[in-house]
Amino acid sequence: MSTDTPALRITGLVKDYGDVHAVRGIDLEVRRGEVYGFLGPNGAGKTTTIRCLLDLLRPTAGRIEVLGLDPRRDGVELRRRVAYVPGELRLPERMTGAQLVASIGRLRGGFDRRRRDELAARLGLDLGRRTRDLSSGNRRKVAVLLAFLAGAELLVLDEPTNGLDPLIQHEFLRLVREVRAAGVTVFLSSHVLSEVQRAADRVAVLRAGKVVAQGTVDELRGQARQRVDVWFEGDAPGAELAAVPGIEDPLIEGHRFAAVVSGPIQPLLALLARHPVVSALIEEPDLEDAFLDLYGEAS
Amino acid sequence: MIARSVELVLGPWRASWRAGVGWGIAFVLLVVSTVAFWPAFQGSSGISQAIDQLPAGMLQAFGLQGFGSPAGYLRGGLYELIVPFMFTAAGVMFANGAIAAEEEAGRLELFLAQPVSRSAFMAGRTVAIGAWLVVLTAIVLASQLASDAAFGLRIDQSRVVATIVLCALLGALDAGLCIAIAGARARPSLVLSVGLGMAFASYLVAVLFPLNNVLGPWRHVSPWDWALGGDPLVNGAEPWRYVALAGLAVALTILGVAAFGRRDIRSA
């Protein structure tokens, strides 16, 4: 299979459950070797989309290619090259973690025992306990371990850090960076924005079954509104400031000017350069702001 | 490839281990305790005569004809209702537990995300269900033959074997029906109600329809009649009875496997 083909290409994906339109026409492409964040709140259609990739759901319309393969026609070969952490995770209750790993290993043609033990140690997971005796976080660690143990070309991770403590979330992000460096593609679905912000090269934001934005994290961040707070030597040039494009909620009090800027900040910086400024505070735009803005726009 | 195929069978087999052992113990206790009363019953002609005086329809409905003979005793005590119904219940429970209940609980997702086809996955579960029914058949057979020898119940062993195999095939047929339903819909309540309901309806048709001249000929639509309508403990069984039960079980299973490959998999 050519490595020129994208890791994932979704075209016009629609999935209906009777009268419920879970996914309403998604188009996106994930390049090989990148970490792609798939953001959206509960019910946005993330899990439905992901389950279509694995052929667990059959799309109502649209086309999916995973590593150049059709999920319906080439499902076995596709799943050999893809590892998956389900969002709604249910494990066989009477098996220990080690037994489950061995069982999945037999279905996948065998696992590296040393790598298994290394991953278990890094995730702080006791594989000797029955899965029904594990907390939800520890059960998720089992699924994360299985995904990273599979040696897959593409990891499809649906809310993989749900229930994990911050230390293990940090370790998880290290694992993501390691496999990315080894050329593995990661499709990371999450509603934890900081996690995506730290791990993803590009992101798509989903709302009500549609992609409402996609691009690099920086591009998305560039769409976010930024809060500025400026002190001038003299009075703030109110009329000029009010005329700057993208200025919202301006506050002009003597020497001080505060506002929210949406879109490019360059016109404001050009104006400030023409005036004596004592101090200027421009908050770094956060992906969360972009995310919330997008949701505001879409709703 | 071989390890994968073996795991597709052994995984669900191991998961049903407790249920399988439970059914096995129940069958052994039932068979041994029933046969253990044969020496006392054999020596008491009064009970046999009292049963023979019941109305003919009641004797027929409850399989009590010739209750004083070894074949009549086993038929009335075990193989008219209890053993075949236990086999059908076991078939329904195994099929529901391995497929519909697991899917409803969301536990199939992790396995179906591995490099296995839906048909191979279902075939593995079907073989595991069939293997448990074979084990239970062997347990019933062994406990019946051993009890017969221990308690002096003299009966043609080939007819005992035929009867037990037919009961097991009745269970396999109901398991096949449940696999067909579970393949089409992930609804354990539907699988259980249709599976157990069919077993019960099939029994009623087989034993009650013959009591009515109009309905009598329609008893042959009942798989229960295919299995036990010829009184195999007394007469043995014609080959078509095995073929009909096994053939329909296989056909229903194939339908279930095909349906499973065509639909969405339910998540938790």
Can you give a write-up of this model?
- The complex is a heterodimer of chains A (299) and B (268).
- With 299 residues, chain A is of the alpha/beta class.
- Chain A folds into two domains: 8-221, P-loop containing nucleotide triphosphate hydrolases (Rossmann fold, 3-Layer(aba) Sandwich); 224-298, 2-Layer Sandwich (Alpha-Beta Plaits), CATH 3.30.70.
- Helices cover 35% and strands 29% of the residues of chain A.
- In chain A, the strands form three sheets. In chain A, strands 5-6-7-3-8-9 form a six-stranded mixed sheet, sandwiched between helices. A four-stranded antiparallel sheet of chain A has the order 11-12-10-13. In chain A, strands 2-1-4 form a three-stranded antiparallel sheet, covered by helices on one side.
- In chain A, strand 11 and strand 12 (256-261) form a beta hairpin.
- The longest helix of chain A is centred in the middle third of the chain and has 16 residues, at 166-181.
- Chain B has 268 residues and is an all-alpha fold.
- Chain B has one domain.
- Chain B has helices at residues 2-15, 17-36, 38-42, 45-52, 56-61, 70-79, 82-104, 109-112, 118-151, 157-184, 188-208, 223-228, 232-235, 239-260.
- In chain B, helix 2 runs antiparallel to helix 7, helix 7 packs antiparallel against helix 9 and helix 10 packs antiparallel against helix 11 (188-208).
- The longest helix of chain B has 34 residues, at 118-151.
- The interface between A and B is medium-sized, with 30 and 26 residues.
State the gist of this model.
Chain A is of the alpha/beta class and 299 residues long.
